[in-house]
Design goal:
By secondary structure, this protein is an all-alpha fold. The chain has 10 helices and no strands. The radius of gyration is 20 Å and the shape is elongated.
């Protein structure tokens, strides 16, 4: 894939993310008004998540536009166009600031909407918010290492592995830690929760794959520029599914609970 095509592809996906975050914010704010007081908090958190993501995607998009400016300068100077070389102006930290704020909220909203035993609810939220913070923080440290080959001893791989440990701990709680409580919910809610857990692992599972792309690009026949582009596309698609998409499932659970006593 040539550099200009890759740039435009990422540009389009980032534009889509801005639209998805903005539209879902207005939906969640409107939808929470139809819910009973006790069912609103999780949907309020969904609205907060997509609002934070909307702001950061505007910043991410602006930073990506600078990559396009660099490509134009390279073309004007008669230089070969290379996306990875033009991407020096791109600020990846915007994503990590976003995730540092939104991922703990995503974990909290799932626990809150289920209305578990108060003691269990408090324990799960506190523990998994901490896990989420550590997962993102250690992942960001690894992101600062620019690696073009797979090496188990390099910083990106090591910090990525540490980050994955916290990811697994979160999944352990969300998949196994509250199964007993889920069985007490209505059949409809159990069905939505099963879908939600699949969405969670499917979307969150994209992040470590995208994270590794710069390191494995050369091993799978991709250029460094392709690896960069696919990483940004992977992150963006996962964000759309994990925030507006996840939020819609949270809203559905809240709506079902709105009509029940549980």
């Amino acid at each position: 894939m040539d550099a200009l095509t890759a740039y435009k592809l990422v540009y389009g996906f980032m534009s889509l993310a801005i639209a998805a975050m903005g539209a879902s914010f207005f939906f969640f704010v409107s939808a929470r008004g139809a819910l009973k007081e006790g069912n609103r908090m999780a949907v309020t958190l969904s609205a907060t998540v997509v609002l934070i993501a909307f702001y950061h995607y505007v910043r991410i998009f602006d930073s990506w536009v600078e990559v396009g400016t660099n490509l134009k300068l390279m073309a004007a100077a008669g230089m070969p166009l290379a996306l990875d070389k033009a991407a020096g102006a791109f600020n990846e930290s915007y994503r990590y600031v976003d995730w540092l704020l939104t991922v703990p909220l995503l974990v909290a909203e799932l626990v809150l909407v289920l209305k578990l035993d108060k003691k269990l609810e408090s324990t799960l939220i506190k523990r998994n918010v901490l896990y989420a913070f550590l997962m993102i923080a250690t992942g960001y440290i690894g992101e600062t290492f620019t690696i073009s080959t797979v090496d188990l001893s390099n910083g990106r791989t090591i910090w990525g592995a540490i980050s994955t440990v916290f990811f697994v701990l979160i999944l352990r709680d969300l998949f196994g830690g509250i199964d007993a409580s889920i069985k007490k919910q209505s059949k409809d809610i159990q069905g939505i929760f099963k879908i939600l857990r699949v969405v969670l692992i499917a979307t969150w599972g994209v992040y470590p794959i995208a994270y590794l792309l710069p390191a494995i690009a050369g091993n799978i026949g991709l250029s460094a520029g392709d690896g960069l582009a696919y990483k940004q596309i992977g992150y963006t698609i996962a964000d759309i599914l994990a925030k507006p998409g996840y939020g819609l499932l949270i809203w559905k659970i809240a709506t079902l609970k709105n009509g029940s006593s549980k």
